[in-house]
Design a protein that fits this description.
By secondary structure, this protein is mainly alpha-helical. The radius of gyration is 19 Å and the shape is globular.
Amino acid sequence: MPMLQMTLAMAIFGSVGFFTVKTGVPAAELVFVRCICATLFLGCCWLITGGHKVEVWRKREVMQTVVCGVFLVLNWVFLFKAFEEISITVTITLYNLAPIFVLIIGSLFLKERMTLTGLLAIVICFLGSVCIIGVQNFASLSDFVGLGFGWAILSALCYAMTMLIGKEIKGLSAYAMTFIQTTVGIVMLFPFMDFTVFNGLSDSNWLYIVGTGFIHTGFVYYLFFNSLRQLSTVVISALVFVDPVVAILLDILILDFQPTLYQIAGILLIFGGIVYTIVKQE
């Protein structure tokens, strides 16, 4: 049952890019709605299960969770911005560089020893990124960001920071962590909201918006957290790849994305580098 829940969670999350491009709403506003839906859904789950009664609140962990929430929300905003500019396949592939950024940041700032495995994975993934983005797009920072590649890289970097900070939080439950983080998102994004973007949306747009909020955030995170602590690291590492596989298949089969040969090579290099890292660490 936990394996099925995790598989379903990853498969549903793999369709978030498809839903995002169908909402007709800019990235920041979509993340704002997502934070509201997740706060309501997971907050109710937290209360119903009685988890709020046994929470152990430590000031340091709460502050870490708040900082983690800032990076989580920025990660979502940058990810959705990338979906607006470039294909879902390219975005998801670059987004999955997050574990490689964890290795780099850990080595540079947390005094974690860089192994030969980690170094080789970084080189492989860097070459994959060059193949996907194209050498010519590294020449100008404005082109790099303007074409959407920069947003995808920033999203992966923020996700890596979320993982690094989040792994230090041991006392708070997953529900409490997510409730705090999505509440931070609501407060953080509210001053920047342009509520006029919601005017004139079709029923279809609203269906995708609500789906992104309650299904891709609330329900998926419920399944994820409910199964996470009952599965081994090996199983989790394998099932995480259901997400990009679903995303890429939807992009190619439904949205008619046709990657170039260089991009196909880059995708294979990046996921090959990540799989190599996981296998060697187990």
